[in-house]
Design brief:
heterodimer, A: Aminopeptidase, 2 domains, 13-stranded mixed β-sheet, B: Non-ribosomal Peptide Synthetase Peptidyl Carrier Protein, Chain A, globular
Chain lengths: 263, 75
């Protein structure tokens, strides 16, 4: 495994993979590569007919791959706690088939996700909660981080870095549910907004406050601008979340993903 | 060149209106998985070599942007 220290070092490795029939699970943008390089967290491993890119995190690794039709993954030496996500649509059949290959390599399926899309909010969605919802303000990041850590598996939840969290708070993309009049933080919603997409990245209600309509009150903050669509990825076994999103107006789209771990 | 590129694009992503769309990436009509396939096909068909820095949305938001990229690499 070699550490990638410059884009110039990375470029030929990736470009060598751009051949007819190549598949990839999570190609990164040049800006993302640059960020990983600056943090010293990007590593590569070559193999016959493919390339593995590993991003080092606190106690685990995130993996991306480029694989040729004749790629041989048997020689790979992966670090323990490597997490791999394979998003596919029905037409990504070769990528879907690669799951068998990774399973044979030693990856274990953790769970599957379903993407849902929102074109228009349901008129019938009603909020019944005694909590107040307001945008998070600068300085509240530790409370949000604590809730994230208590409620998510860091390896699979795509949680923001400290910097990204501060940026999200400053941009008004994080909302807190606060009990009245005690002022306790009961949950939060984190959105990711681009020109065309408003994505629910995380929504959390702390255990003691569940069953009080707080998730609905948080989700109610999701507004769509003209021409914008809503997206959310939901674990397929999270029936309560699937129901909540459906009642808001979300519907399953063609994307699913599988999340794997090499232990 | 345009015809060949259109052939690659419609084969990779059937159903997308490549003639008129100008925000293919920004609007989510092309995904990063599609870009890998398209770049592999472009490099093969036009015998050009891209750099990682070229893999930005601006270069793949429209057919014209992709043609411009191919032309600049071929020069």
């Amino acid at each position: 495994m070699e550490q990638i220290k410059t884009l110039e070092q990375l470029s030929p490795l990736i470009l060598a993979q751009f051949k007819r029939g190549v598949i990839a699970n999570a190609p990164l943008s040049p800006a993302s590569f640059q960020r990983e390089i600056q943090r010293g967290t990007l590593f590569a491993q070559r193999m016959d007919g493919g390339l593995i890119l590993l991003r080092r995190r606190d106690g685990f690794w995130r993996m991306s791959f480029y694989l040729q039709p004749d790629g041989d993954v048997t020689s790979l030496e992966l670090p323990k706690q490597t997490v791999l996500e394979i998003p596919t649509r029905p037409r990504d059949q070769a990528l879907k088939r690669s799951e068998t290959l990774w399973e044979e390599t030693g990856f274990r399926l953790l769970f599957s996700r379903q993407r849902m899309e929102l074109a228009r909010r349901s008129d019938e969605f009603a909020v019944r909660s005694d909590c107040c919802v307001r945008p998070a303000i600068c300085g509240e990041e530790p409370k949000i981080l604590r809730l994230m850590e208590e409620n998510y598996d860091r390896r699979t939840a795509c949680l923001p870095t400290d910097d990204e969290l501060s940026e999200d708070v400053a941009a008004g993309h994080i909302f807190l549910a606060v009990t009245c009049p005690e002022g306790q933080v009961a949950g939060f919603l984190r959105l990711l907004r681009t020109k065309r997409i408003a994505e629910v990245r995380q929504i959390v209600v702390s255990e003691p406050f569940r069953g009080r309509g707080i998730a609905g009150a948080l989700l109610n903050q999701l507004t769509l601008a003209e021409g914008q669509k809503g997206h959310v990825w939901v674990a397929q076994n999270n029936v309560a979340a699937l129901r909540l999103y459906e009642s808001f107006g979300f519907a399953k789209d063609e994307w699913t993903s599988t999340v794997w771990i090499y232990q | 060149m345009r015809e060949k590129l259109m052939e690659i694009l419609t084969e990779t992503c059937p159903g997308v209106d490549f003639e008129t769309e100008t925000a293919l990436i920004d609007d989510g009509l092309l995904e990063s998985l599609d870009i890998v396939t398209i770049v592999a096909e472009i490099m093969d068909a036009f015998e050009v070599e891209l750099n990682v820095e070229d893999l930005v949305p601006e270069n793949f938001n429209s057919v014209d942007a992709m043609l411009e990229l191919i032309q600049s690499l071929a020069e």
